[in-house]
């Protein structure tokens, strides 16, 4: 409540228009958090603030963004001059309504000119929280270098991050015992239990050495729903896993309450024609859970927020909760046995836990995702309406992770997939510990008292900290047994380095004992073999080399890995609805590391000269990488080309001006970044020539950008062009755009490929 009260007090001093502006820019980072961060920075940095209008005369300041303090970055995004409020209203209507008339845009552009005076454009490149990779929370963690949480040191008078210490003894695994009526006292005796089989497996030193040195062997299999699967393992070939055509809940060895609650919770995804006796899983869930329950690593790159996203979330929530309940039941059962054992009994029979308590780490991009996961947990634990589970701090959780529907601008129109991804509270800096004990759930549990940790990459990154920081902690990651990374493709649009940083610090030996009873710790944890028992579940909307690298190089599960590797047959080019000639120009590169320089040289030597003529005006250059964008922008400035630019860091007023200049032909080129399109999805009018500097990360962005040409009512369809640069290292992206058959032909041939697509191909 303190955080929201502070935000509302500051909010009351803002005008109605400023509030609307903040609400829109809260698409990724809610403005309550922005205002709080200003308070935190002001209290943490006792320096006098300078006017944010004192910016350099050149927009090159964007390349030197790290020299600007976090305080000024945040201040610049909230500062609005009173006399420009009317202009901002026009700016917003232009940005929010993609189908506005040309006359309206011209009117808005003329009004924006007055706003641009006084060095406004000089500040275009100051990052904004909701669009930048370096979000406000990252800036705070980098500037303060305290690493652990978003709050400042208590000596500054700011309250630290909330954790629930009130219910510590109630949820302690050491002091509680198995309840007789739970019916799980003998759960550890079920030898066919996949959990027990996986965790009780004792590896030998030679097997560990083999996994560390030898390459994995792989085999293929075709499943009805998942398609082509690649099974890989370093140890001896395991028994081939086959898809279960029918699944009996009782044969899955689920923890007792889940057997009865899962069919009811999952009913919403089942077909209305299914009979009650049919499988409680959808075909997709059945095959995914079959792999999950075998404790193999899994990479599924076909997650879709519109179609199967919630199905997948329910499946991995069931698996994670089942794992935690079984693990805790084993500990509580052994507590009871230890209490009743005779003196002198060997205590090695009770090794049932890790060096730290957290067992499951779930990485999700937004608070809304964490909210849905917790709600799924609660639904799975409540046997019926009469037996409600006790959830500590539930009201606080809903307040901090929920969203206000009124905060969303009413006239904001975006594609369906955008609405699905950015639904609810999309703050990307959070972490929360969850403890589950029999019939109770504890939210905001301290990490070392939690069973499950739900966090964003940024939220977990600021806890881990960086080398050299005095306040950092990653011991709680030492005994993670299940790692779930959902919506991995979104992290490519945020900051992938946070994911890599996490993978480097998971399953390391802790630096402190944290009060653990070593007589209860499994030998696999004491031997520092935790990573060989950890199951990693990776879900993404696409296949990408960076995601593949994490799955191939950071997953060491002794059981093996399973990756879904289906190839696209048609590609997103078939969704282009305008008649447009597509020219795919191949560039040569000696290696993956040299392809960046090779692409730039190819572009300035071969492609750009063809577009310098004034007749080739209205040329949009789509650039997926921000670093490539900066390089091109600097080159265009050096060559004094007539261009404008829009990136994820560009301020809203500058975006409107750039769109107007490009539409009217006052600027010949428009540099346009992929991240800006991901976060905003604006329709850019006036495009006549398209250049894809690199193939898009999301294949459907290709057709979306191409279809923007239909927004230009100029009657010059015959002059439209589309040029795409690609290399042999872009095979995956190329297949997603043109299909696997065309990709094979294009990679074999070194000539340029001309395609003419009418939308029916």
TrEMBL record:
Name by which UniProt lists this protein: U3 small nucleolar RNA-associated protein 25 homolog
Coiled coil: none
Chief localization: nucleus
Function recorded in the entry: Component of the ribosomal small subunit processome for the biogenesis of ribosomes, functions in pre-ribosomal RNA (pre-rRNA) processing. Essential for embryonic development in part through the regulation of p53 pathway. Controls the expansion growth of digestive organs and liver. Also involved in the sympathetic neuronal development. Mediates, with CAPN3, the proteasome-independent degradation of p53/TP53.
Subcellular localization(s) per the UniProt record: Nucleus, Nucleolus
Ranges where the UTP25 C-terminal domain occurs: 572-756
GO MF terms, alphabetically ordered: rRNA binding; U3 snoRNA binding
Biased composition (Acidic residues): 84-134
Domain UTP25 NTP hydrolase-like: from-to ranges: 295-562
Region (Disordered) residue spans: 48-167, 332-352
InterPro entries per UniProt: P-loop_NTPase, UTP25, UTP25_C, UTP25_NTPase-like
PANTHER family in the record: ORF PROTEIN-RELATED (PTHR12933), U3 SMALL NUCLEOLAR RNA-ASSOCIATED PROTEIN 25 HOMOLOG (PTHR12933:SF0)
Family under the similarity heading: Belongs to the UTP25 family.
UniProtKB keywords: Developmental protein, Nucleus, Phosphoprotein
Species of the source: Struthidea cinerea
Compositional bias ranges of the Polar residues kind: 135-151
Basic and acidic residues: compositionally biased ranges: 152-167, 342-352
UniProt-listed Gene3D superfamilies: P-loop containing nucleotide triphosphate hydrolases
GO BP annotations listed: maturation of SSU-rRNA from tricistronic rRNA transcript (SSU-rRNA, 5.8S rRNA, LSU-rRNA)
Keyword flag Nucleus: yes
Family matches, as Pfam families: Utp25_C, UTP25_NTPase-like
């Amino acid at each position: 409540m303190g955080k929201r009260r502070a935000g509302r007090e500051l909010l009351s001093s803002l005008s109605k228009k400023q509030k609307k502006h903040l609400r829109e820019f809260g698409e990724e980072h809610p403005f309550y958090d922005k205002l709080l961060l200003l308070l935190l920075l002001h209290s943490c940095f006792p320096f006098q603030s300078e006017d944010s209008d004192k910016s350099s005369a050149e927009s090159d300041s964007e390349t030197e963004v790290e020299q600007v303090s976090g305080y000024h970055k945040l201040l610049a995004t909230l500062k609005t001059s009173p006399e420009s409020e009317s202009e901002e209203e026009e700016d917003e209507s232009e940005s929010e309504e993609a189908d506005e008339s040309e006359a309206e845009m011209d009117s808005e552009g003329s009004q924006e000119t007055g706003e641009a005076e006084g060095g406004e454009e000089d500040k275009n490149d100051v990052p904004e929280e909701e669009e930048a990779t370096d979000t406000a929370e990252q800036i705070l963690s980098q500037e303060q270098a305290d690493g652990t949480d978003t709050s400042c040191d208590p000596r500054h008078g700011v309250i630290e991050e909330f954790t629930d210490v009130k219910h510590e003894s109630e949820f302690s695994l050491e002091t509680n015992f198995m309840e007789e009526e739970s019916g799980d006292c003998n759960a550890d005796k079920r030898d066919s239990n996949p959990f027990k089989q996986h965790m009780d497996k004792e590896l030998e030193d030679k097997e560990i050495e083999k996994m560390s040195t030898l390459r994995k062997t792989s085999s293929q299999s075709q499943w009805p729903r998942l398609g082509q699967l690649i099974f890989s393992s370093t140890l001896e070939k395991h028994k081939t896993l086959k898809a279960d055509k029918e699944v009996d809940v009782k044969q899955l060895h689920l923890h007792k309450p889940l057997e009865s609650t899962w069919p009811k919770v999952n009913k919403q995804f089942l077909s209305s024609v299914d009979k009650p006796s049919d499988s409680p899983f959808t075909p997709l869930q059945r095959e995914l859970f079959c792999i999950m329950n075998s404790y193999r690593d899994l990479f599924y790159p076909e997650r879709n927020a519109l179609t199967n996203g919630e199905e997948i979330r329910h499946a991995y929530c069931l698996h994670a909760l089942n794992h935690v309940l079984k693990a805790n039941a084993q500990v509580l059962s052994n507590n009871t046995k230890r209490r009743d054992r005779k003196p002198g009994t060997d205590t090695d029979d009770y090794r049932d836990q890790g060096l730290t308590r957290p067992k499951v780490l779930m990485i999700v991009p937004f608070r809304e995702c964490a909210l849905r996961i917790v709600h799924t947990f609660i639904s799975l634990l409540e046997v019926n309406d009469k037996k409600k589970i006790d959830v500590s701090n539930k009201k606080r959780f809903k307040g901090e992770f929920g969203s206000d529907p009124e905060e969303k601008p009413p006239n904001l129109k975006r594609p369906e997939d955008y609405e699905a991804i950015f639904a609810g509270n999309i703050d990307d800096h959070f972490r929360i510990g969850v403890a589950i004990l029999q019939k109770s759930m504890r939210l905001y549990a301290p990490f070392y008292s939690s069973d499950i940790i739900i966090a964003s990459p940024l939220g977990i990154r600021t806890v881990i900290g960086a080398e050299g920081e005095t306040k950092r902690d990653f011991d709680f990651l030492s005994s993670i047994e299940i790692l779930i990374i959902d919506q991995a493709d979104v992290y490519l649009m945020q900051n992938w380095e946070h994911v890599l940083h996490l993978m480097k610090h998971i399953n390391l030996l802790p630096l402190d004992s944290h009060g653990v009873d070593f007589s209860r710790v499994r030998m696999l944890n004491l031997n520092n073999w935790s990573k060989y028992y950890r199951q990693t579940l990776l879900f993404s909307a696409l296949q990408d080399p960076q995601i593949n690298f994490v799955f191939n190089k950071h997953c060491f599960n002794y059981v093996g890995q399973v990756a879904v590797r289906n190839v696209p047959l048609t590609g997103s080019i078939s969704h282009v609805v305008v008649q447009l000639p597509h020219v795919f120009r191949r560039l040569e590169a000696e290696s993956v590391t040299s392809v960046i320089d090779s692409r730039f040289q190819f572009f300035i030597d071969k492609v750009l000269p063809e577009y310098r003529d004034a007749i080739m005006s209205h040329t949009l250059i789509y650039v997926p990488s921000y670093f490539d964008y900066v390089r091109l922008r600097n080159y265009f400035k050096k060559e004094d080309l007539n261009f404008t630019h829009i990136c994820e860091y560009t301020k809203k007023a500058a975006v409107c001006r750039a769109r107007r200049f490009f539409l009217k032909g006052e600027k010949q080129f428009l540099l346009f970044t992929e991240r800006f399109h991901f976060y905003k999805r604006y329709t850019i009018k006036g495009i006549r020539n398209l250049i894809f500097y690199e193939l898009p990360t999301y294949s459907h962005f290709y057709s979306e950008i191409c279809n923007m040409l239909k927004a230009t009512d100029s009657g010059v369809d015959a002059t439209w062009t589309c040029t795409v640069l690609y290399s042999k290292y872009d095979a995956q992206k190329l297949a997603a755009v043109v299909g696997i058959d065309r990709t094979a032909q294009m990679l074999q041939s070194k000539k340029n490929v001309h395609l003419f697509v009418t939308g029916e191909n």
